[in-house]
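User: Please fill in residues for this 177-position structure.
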């Protein structure tokens, strides 16, 4: 199994576990530290994880009504920007849980008015990854996907369609219901 396959397997297991928020963040950070123990983890010192959750909850709550009433939505995709620091919400006209490539997530019939761009955690993950990763941004991949997926599982319950999270230029993970 390649390193990337190990990380993908971790994320699939992580999402299937449906963690309580703080326990999930703890597990995610523990995994990240095991991957790159020498990374500058002190970047996250003093991070208010409860504030992060409240910020995401406020952002998603502001979009639930419009998202649920948009015509033709089969599923919702939370797309993470290439740099890992912002998230947008798309209502997609197709949804294929078996398509891990996420081709169905490339088009949308609903898009959030604004991105969630207030996350100090995502900014911290990006900084840690930039300083620690050599060629492949493994920490950015694992930490951002895991963190956003954890927030979506906890706070996007008001969206009444299947949910997925992914990088706009990469993999898509369908979140278990």
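Assistant: Residues filled in for all 177 positions:
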């Amino acid at each position: 199994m390649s390193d990337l396959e190990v990380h993908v397997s971790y994320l699939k297991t992580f999402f299937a576990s449906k963690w309580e928020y703080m326990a999930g963040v703890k597990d995610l950070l523990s995994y990240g530290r095991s991957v790159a123990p020498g990374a500058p983890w002190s970047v996250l010192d003093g991070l208010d994880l409860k504030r992060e959750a409240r910020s995401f909850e406020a952002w998603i709550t502001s979009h639930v009504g419009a998202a649920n009433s948009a015509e033709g939505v089969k599923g919702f995709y939370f797309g993470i920007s290439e740099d890992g620091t912002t998230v947008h919400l798309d209502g997609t006209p197709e949804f294929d849980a078996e398509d891990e490539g996420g081709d169905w997530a490339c088009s949308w019939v609903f898009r959030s008015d604004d991105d969630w761009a207030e996350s100090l955690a995502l900014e911290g993950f990006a900084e840690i990854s930039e300083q620690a990763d050599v060629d492949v941004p493994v920490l950015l991949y694992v930490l951002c996907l895991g963190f956003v997926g954890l927030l979506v599982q906890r706070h996007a319950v008001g969206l009444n369609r299947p949910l997925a999270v992914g990088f706009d230029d990469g993999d898509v993970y369908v979140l278990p219901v």
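For context: The longest helix spans residues 49-69.
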